Amino acid sequence: MGWVRWWMRPLGVLALVGVLAWRVEPAAVTHAWHQVDPATFGLALAAAVAVAVVSTVCVAWRWVLVARGLGLALTLPDAVAASYRAQFLNVTLPAGVAGDVHRAVTHGRSAGDVARGAYAVVCERAAGQAVQVALALAALATVPSPLHWTSGLSVGPPGRVGWGVGVAGAVVVGLGMRARLRRRSSGVGAVPGGARSGLRRALLSPRVWPAVVVLSVVAVAGHVGTFLLAARAAGVAAVPLQLVPLAFVVLLAAAVPVNLAGWGPREGAAAWVFGASGLGADRGVVVAAVYGALVVVASLPGAAVILHSRRRNRVPGPACTGRAHA
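Above: the chain's sequence. Below: its structure in token form.
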């Protein structure tokens, strides 16, 4: 049955693309693309790269806290480099999580415990997803927009079920993270019970959990900010604050574990929420595509990390020269 699950992802994305092509006129999408200002897009690229630096450092720092809570050694510079590499692999390889698997296994091997390393990465990602879901629900409930559950706007389904969308997204993301945890744990071996209890003590510690929450909030804010940059580059004439709930819905859809490097559900959700809010489904598709381009460019330092690692591995080390490691 493994081959069935392998084919379900691309087939699901292709089906979604087909639905988008059927519901959104290609000519309208082409026209919306022409509204993207090259100068604004260039500024958005520079800003997205800067925002990604802050977000990546926050994610890496969060990973360090979780790993150390499990008794694994991990420095912040190493975590930042591995996080950039993981981001690049995630946005360029079909699975969308290959980078996280790579950093989990690599760190686990260097620490001498692959299972514990994988568990640290999955729990770190789960903590970030939990904060993102909480912020999404808060935005849907408080920020005035077409997705506000009390808005009463006659703009289609989101005007009445925005809250339901957030809850459904939370459930889907939660189930996806749970499935990932099971697959990763079964693939690298069982995680000792002491690791789980140690992680609970570490995260519940008053000195740790506030830092994890704050770092996650900053990282999520970076993703939302990048989406707003994409909307600005695409020429969306709307108040940025009103786009925040839409951004959260799109980001939740991008986290659904049925995508190709993040592409698929993200564009579908953007077309739906932008169309229902009166901004145009075609504009939503373009904003999601521009956001994807910004994310890819912002992850390019990860490619440099990969090239540097390969070059370093080709250089004879101390073991090859007869010298012992320090």
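The two ends are 47 Å apart (CA to CA).
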